[in-house]
Structure formats: structure tokens, C-alpha cells
Write a structure and sequence with these properties.
Keywords: NADP, Oxidoreductase. It comes from Echria macrotheca. One of its GO terms (molecular function) is oxidoreductase activity. Belongs to the NmrA-type oxidoreductase family. Isoflavone reductase subfamily. With 318 residues, this protein is of the alpha/beta class. It folds into two domains: 133 residues, NAD(P)-binding Rossmann-like Domain (Rossmann fold, 3-Layer(aba) Sandwich); 133 residues, UDP-galactose 4-epimerase, domain 1 (Alpha-Beta Complex). It has a six-stranded parallel sheet, sandwiched between helices. Strand 9 and strand 10 form a beta hairpin. The longest helix is centred in the C-terminal third of the chain and has 17 residues. The radius of gyration is 20 Å and the shape is globular.
Amino acid sequence: MVKIAIAGGTGELGREVTEALVATGKHDITVLTRAVRSDIPGVTQRAVDYDDHDGLAQALHGIHTVLSFVNQLMEAPDKNCQKSLIDACISAGVKRFAPSEYGSLGKVDLPFWKKKKATREYLEQVNRHAKVLEYTLFQPGLLLDYLATPFKTSKYVTPLDTFIGFQDRRAIVVEGHEDAVLTLTAVRDIVGVVVQAVDYDGEWPRLGGVRGNRVTVSTILEVGARIRGRPFSVERVQVEDLERGRLNTSWSLGKPHPGFTPEQTGQMEAMLQTVLISILLSVVKEDWEVSDAWNKCLPDFRFTDIESFLDEVWKGKD
């Protein structure tokens, strides 16, 4: 048993992991939250202020592992609560830390994740002379569950659109990059890996790739055609247009991530177009092809296969 603190444990993926860890019955779990809630059984909740270093460090006193799922989309530009959390971990003597990463390997073309990049750089900085804080960057690539949209395939994670839509049998593909590689991992597997990682005896891998499925864009379209009964309608775009901020397509993403603010969603159409352009550019650069570091650490873990997952979701649906 170890003492675990989960920052952002009331959010979507954080809630999935929190409940899975509670279900093991192994650990003493504290959820760090800005506002205590009444619907999270089996944990201790601590209301924290990320600007209060001493208070945050006190909340982490005696904690072995900190898992962060904090949502920084609503955070002020000059703030980085994950940096504050790292400083508090060091002051409190926390052994292990996992930042709110859970996405791609590269971040350059994903401006909405710039604070994740800053957090990575800060972790490297604090450990530059000697290991002060053991950490791993959980990188599962794109959520496989998004290909099930609009159907919800996990308890809390919201179904979101991406550049391949199984419901409408359509896709947006960058010309000449049909064989770009990306990783797709199911939410259930991300949760399972994090739960097992808490008990892992070895040193955590710094770049913690979680490789559920390593596939090309063309392979996803082939799988989609088989499962949905006919080829997808494909619209092709040019890299040069994307780099100029132009999306010459008849459709874009349908709804924003729930973490965006009301002010951001008020500019939803432009924002979603920017997000889609960013994702397409990052796919071209294969930023979503992550390592298999955690696969190697947990060789007995069985990941959800893309075809069986999608067949289960879409079987019998028009």
C-alpha cells in the first residue's frame, strides 16, 4: 500500500483512475481539488490553492505518489498549477509524480497543450543535476474511444469528434500522408496501466508511452470501411494550407472539450477549426506515435484491439 494524491481527481479521466484505484482496495487515496464534492466515496478530499505553496506541500505530507489530471485550459496565461504541484512535491518529499500529460509525444503543433510542454521542461530542469523527483509522462496517443463518438464507452470521459468520424463515415486526410502513424489507446487501458504503474517496483520510465494500437491513417479507414459497411468519404487537405491556418473542408469538429471555458466556447467554430488543424499537422509529423515504454514495463497487460473495440461499438448500427 502507498499513499496516493490525485490532483484533478474530480475531472473526467481523473475520476476514472480514482475509482479504479479505490476499487483495488490497496491504497490510501487523497483527492486534491479546488472544491470538495460529496459524490466521491472511498477517498479523502483536500481543498487546495495551487498558489499557496506551504498549504499545498502540507497537503502532500506523507504522500508517496502524486497523479495529476488537472485541467489547465481555464488557467490564467501566467499561471501553471502543475509547476506549483511539482515544487510542493519536492518540498514534501514525494517520491513519484505523473503530470497531466495523457496525449501525444510532440506538442509543438498543439498550442492548447503548451502548458503540458512547459511542465515537461520544468521536470527536466528540476532533475538536471540529480534525480529530485521520479516521474513519468503517460503518453497514450489519441483516445480510441473518440472513434466511438457519439457513443460513450467509458463512465466519465466525454465522446469527442476527431478527424475520422465513424458515425458519418467520413474523414479528413492530409494529402500524401495517408500512412502517417499514430497511437490509439482505449480509456479502459490507460486507466489499467496507471493503476498497475502505481504498484510497479522498477523505476518509472520518463517517456511513458502507452501503446494500445499503433496504426496508420489508411489502416483506420480500412477498418472503418469493414466495420461500417462501406468506404468512408474522404476530404483531402494540403499541408501548406494547414500551416497557413486554412481548413478547406466541408466539415470540422462538432463540439469542444468540456474543459474549455464559456468564453472559449463562445468562439466555438473558430476554436474547433484551430484544434482540428493542429491535430492534422501533428499527425503529419507523427507526434501521436508514442513509445511502448509502459508496454515493456507491464508485459502481461493486454490492450484493447482497435478492430474488436470498434466492432463491438458499431455492430448493428446504421
